[in-house]
Write a structure and sequence with these properties.
Blueprint: E1 2-5, E2 12-14, E3 31-36, E4 39-47, E5 64-65, H1 74-86, H2 91-98, E6 114-119, H3 121-125, H4 135-145, E7 151-152, H5 153-160, H6 164-172, E8 176-181, H7 203-215, E9 220-226, H8 232-245, E10 249-253, H9 261-270, E11 275-278, H10 284-295, E12 301-304, E13 316-322, H11 339-350, E14 353-358, H12 363-370, E15 375-379, E16 390-395, E17 401-402, E18 405-406, H13 407-418, E19 422-426, E20 435-438, E21 455-457, E22 462-464, E23 471-473, E24 486-489, H14 493-503, E25 509-512, H15 522-531, E26 537-540, E27 553-558, H16 562-565, H17 572-584, E28 595-600, H18 606-630, E29 637-645, H19 650-663, E30 671-683, E31 686-695, H20 698-714, E32 722-727
Helix pairs in contact: 1-2, 1-11, 4-6, 7-8, 17-18
Bound molecules: adenosine-5'-diphosphate and zinc ion (2 copies).
Length: 733
């Protein structure tokens, strides 16, 4: 038996069948309890093998089979095995990422079905009045007849008290039978949609829907490239309706569910359930219950974050990935996989279409669409009556600013407020001020554990590190020269809020960032005030760029993106362009046209110029040319070997050794760059360095990585040193 064991870094192990033969067949996907070292661990049976490379006399036995049925189907297992191999992760780690956390322990499955009673066909046709002089039986049969799908035992007891006797008699007569019921609260389909809420698709939407419907039943990838408000969600809904009608399940993968309650709401309102939602904010048992609902084939729609890509779906018919460009679709620690790329792979294994939707496609996906590997479906216009926003640059060099706002922007704001409209101000920096410094000697508050400055959080009277979460009370005097002339520089969202109040005294201001939405439910509440028009100025960080509809917003001010224009990461221009277009897309979604003003000290910057002149498509075409010339993704493939250690030299030393190992692997088409210290060399007290592997051909890179990984794992352990291999890295931090 080949078994994957639930332990970090654990691979495959061979075991003998359990000592006590059971009548249960051993099939791949079953959860098992196996002896592992001195402990016992949960494992998943991957394959049955007749021979082993280990010494057969030393093989241990499987202790027991944990579940009555396999948790994962052969296709599920293939996806996970593929992912483990592609991302160079131990299969055990990958498998247990795919399962609800509780199932890594030998605990029994959380079966949320409850015992119930149901009528048999004979019982359905039997008139209770014919049961003679048995009033309790008559009552019981009539009650259960009224619920053809079955009645929970607890309900029965509630209504009739103890009725074990009559129940037994009716079962013996073949009129009633015991059954297992799914709690129906989550399974009641919503009332059918009133036809008036269902817009007629415009011609672009119809073409997109038709193209994807035509592909159902086989594998095909599509890019649904539609500007914000073009009706992509409407396209999703129509597709899901068809898939449900065909008796199949749809998987929808989104970057962050907490940030997009609207998508979920629209799905629940428009689609016949049940919908299983899966994300990290759910508690473990909610998650597991929803997971089982999906895995049993009961949920017709599964809406989840990246790990939902692994959820077993016996009737899978379609996969949708919304906001496919979003970096949070990639897991950034542990098992570093891309939810989007695995969605495509899964569709291929399952033989169904996959649709990647976004207003700002990633350059990888655009390249796939441009080379016709993916179907390219465009929705260039806003749906219905909404018109696109106009974007303009505002040169703020030598401009007097108040609260960081130029006078032109302030005038626009006053005009919009007077007209009863809403305003969105985007500032991608939370906290009060990013720099706290001594005016006498130049001391700057820095994190003792990171190469980073501390952010001032004035209301909490603390200096905070946004990289390792370390904080300290706000000093009254300079720690270096004892001067009390301490000043803050720059502006975060909290300070913007404070500075705006005197400028717009009669105006309601709502701030949305990670600090203002920490409490559960707070984001929904704040969004509600904006939705209802109670908030006139909405300000916040990139949380605002994600999927929310603000129909009343007619003016968007983008205050300060200049830093990201010159960031070193090769993806920075792409990210910045996406952010601008996504924020801009929040404006004027209803009938009111929107205006977007971007303040900058670099109005001549080529990125801003191409974005303004040619839109995102023009920008992306130019950016793809640059990537081609620089041999960067999607024209080359990357893997980043990261190392970190509390000792300054250890990480670099390890990577030098790793480089020497790689050079010995004779894969000349793979180029190695580095090792170099990471852009933020010290974080949370650890020194970090990285080594980049680059190759034009993915299979060659994969081959090399597999050998390299094995060699690296065989190296003697260095105390305190951690390393990880990141295939298709999303950021180079
Ligand atoms: P996206 O997902 O591309 O941002 P949505 O699907 O949310 O776009 O559509 C934006 C708005 O336009 C929504 O209010 C939606 O109800 C509406 N809408 C979508 N399709 C149509 C249509 N064909 N006719 C009229 N309104 C539409
Ligand atoms: Zn000082
Ligand atoms: Zn820190």
């Amino acid at each position: 038996m080949r078994v994957a064991v639930a332990a970090p870094l654990a691979g495959l192990f061979d075991y003998l069948p359990p000592a006590i033969p059971s009548d249960q067949a051993l099939v791949p996907g079953l959860r098992l309890l196996v002896p592992f070292g001195r402990a016992r661990r949960v494992g998943i049976l991957l394959a049955l093998a007749a021979r082993t490379e280990q010494d057969p006399t030393r093989l241990k036995r499987i202790e027991s089979i944990l579940d009555a049925r396999p948790l994962l189907s052969p296709v599920d297992l293939r996806l996970i095995e593929w992912a483990a191999a592609y991302y160079q992760q131990p299969i055990g780690e990958a498998l247990f990422t795919a399962l609800p956390a509780r199932l890594r322990q030998p605990s029994p499955l959380l079966d949320d079905r409850v015992p119930g009673v149901q009528v048999t066909p004979a019982g359905q046709n039997r008139d209770p009045a014919n049961l003679g002089r048995a009033p309790r039986q008559r009552e019981l049969l009539a009650l259960v007849q009224a619920a053809p799908a079955g009645l929970a035992m607890s309900t029965l007891r509630q209504r009739l008290g103890d009725c074990g006797g009559p129940l037994r008699t009716l079962r013996e007569k073949g009129l009633l039978t015991l059954c297992q019921l799914t709690p129906d609260s989550s399974l009641i389909p919503p009332p059918p949609l009133p036809e008036t809420n269902r817009p007629n698709l415009n011609p672009d939407q119809m073409l997109a829907v038709q193209a994807i419907l035509d592909a159902l039943g086989g594998f095909r990838s599509f890019l649904l490239d539609g500007v914000t408000g073009s009706g992509k969600t409407e396209v999703y809904i129509r597709l899901i309706e068809s898939v449900i009608a065909a008796g199949r399940q749809t998987l929808v993968v989104v970057p962050e569910i907490g940030l997009t309650p609207q998508l979920r709401e629209r799905f629940t309102q428009r689609l016949p359930g049940p919908i299983a939602v899966l994300h990290s904010a759910l508690n473990a048992s909610e998650r597991e219950r929803n997971w089982h609902q999906a895995a049993r084939g009961e949920a017709t729609l599964v809406l989840g974050t990246r790990s939902a890509v692994f959820v077993p779906l016996p009737r899978l018919g379609l996969i949708l990935v919304d906001e496919e460009h979003d970096p949070s679709l990639k897991q950034q620690d542990g098992f570093r996989y891309s939810g989007r790329d695995l969605a495509v792979r899964r569709a291929q294994l399952a033989g169904c279409p996959v649709v990647l939707g976004t207003a700002t496609p990633s350059l990888e996906t655009l390249h796939n669409a441009g080379t016709e590997r993916y179907g390219w479906l465009r929705l260039p216009q806003r749906a219905g009556a909404a018109r696109p926003p106009t974007i303009s640059l505002l040169d703020i060099r030598n401009q007097p600013l108040q609260a960081g706002l130029s006078s032109v922007l302030r005038e626009h704001m006053h005009a919009e407020i007077a007209a009863g409209n809403q305003i969105l101000l985007f500032l991608n920096r939370r906290g009060y001020a990013p720099v706290f410094t001594c005016h006498s000697c130049g001391w700057v508050g820095g994190c003792p554990h990171c190469d980073a400055r501390l952010t001032l959080h004035l209301h909490l009277k603390r200096l905070w590190c946004h990289h390792c979460d370390w904080s300290q009370p706000l000093p009254n005097r300079c720690p270096d020269c004892r001067s009390d002339d301490l000043r803050m520089l720059g502006r975060g969202t909290q300070r913007l809020e404070d500075d705006l109040r005197p400028l717009f005294p009669e105006t309601t201001i709502t701030r949305i960032d990670r600090d203002s939405t920490r409490r559960k439910g707070e984001l929904d509440r704040l969004l509600g005030t904006v939705q209802r028009g109670e908030a006139q100025i909405l300000l916040g960080t990139q949380m605002l760029a994600k999927g929310h509809d603000f129909p009343g917003v007619t003016l968007v001010g983008i205050l300060d993106l200049d830093q990201s224009l010159y960031a070193s990461d090769f993806r920075a221009p792409e990210r910045t362009a996406q952010l601008i277009v996504q924020v801009a897309g929040r404006a004027g979604r209803a009938e009111r046209p929107g205006r977007v003003v971007l303040q900058t000290r670099h109005p001549e910057h080529p990125l801003l110029q191409s974005l303004l002149r040619d839109g995102y498509a023009g920008f992306a075409a130019a950016a793809l040319d640059e990537r081609r010339a620089a041999e960067l993704p999607p024209f080359a493939h990357l893997a980043l070997l990261r190392a970190e250690s509390p000792q300054a030299e250890a990480a670099l030393a390890f990577l030098r050794e790793a480089r020497a190992l790689a050079t010995g692997l004779e894969q000349p088409s793979v180029q190695l760059l580095g090792p170099v210290p990471a852009p933020m060399e010290r974080r949370a007290g650890r020194y970090r360095a990285q080594l980049l592997a680059q190759c034009a051909e993915r299979p060659r890179l994969q081959q090399m990585l597999a050998q390299w990984n094995t060699a690296l794992r065989a190296l003697p352990r260095v105390k305190g040193l951690r390393w990880s291999l990141d295939v298709d890295p999303q950021d180079m931090l």
